[in-house]
Model the fold of this input.
Amino acid sequence: MPSRLERGVRLAALVATLSAPPLAALAAQPASAASAPAPDPAEIPRAIEAVKTDPNLATERTIKALRWRDSSPSKPWRAPGWLSWISGLLAWVGESARVLVWVGAAGLAGLLVVYLTRVARTRLADPADGAFVVPTHVRDLDIRPETLPDDVGAAARQLWDRGEQRAALALLYRGMLSRLAHVHGVPIRESSTEGDCLALAAARLPDRAEYLSRLVRVWQRFGYGREPIDTTTVHALCDEFASALRPVSAGAAPAPEAA
Done:
């Protein structure tokens, strides 16, 4: 198949042939026209080069097109380092949730065992056990005799009359615990509650149980329930303190042991 260049040369020759005057016209032309010089051989290559430079006859064509500047593909998004760390931590917590639950359950079980052991020791303590050591504190209350006045009832009444109601009732309750432990040998423990103290005292001092119960109820109503207490009730507790918690006389009959 002829190339585009060859087709262009042939087309140029055809155009030249068609545009040439007829033979009759050439015959009629003067002799000077017939004797016109033939094309110079050097002009033929120039004509071919001119044909090659024609954009309509070229083998390749350059086309310019517009393109948006930001049409290039964007870079993939990458998460910051701190976000990857948090996601990894959440994944670890999710995988370790079962282990954490078992560890927490084991810790709670251990605390429950310790609590039950202390309660059992408090409630099942033998009053005749010679190894009992009187504590210095019951909960957060200091029950050492040297920290208490000689006449607890009178001192508590003075505090109440001065408006120091909580201090007065706290002194009565501390004095009761101190007398029960140091004077009467009731095995009160550091963790003993009000109910524990009453139960332990009932075995040693059954005839003092009514006064002890009244004092503990007043202390609980005011200390925990914030209930107003009548002054007459407090004065009676103060006045009866010494006689209710006095030491048992040597000639008195021993109190019956609890079953």
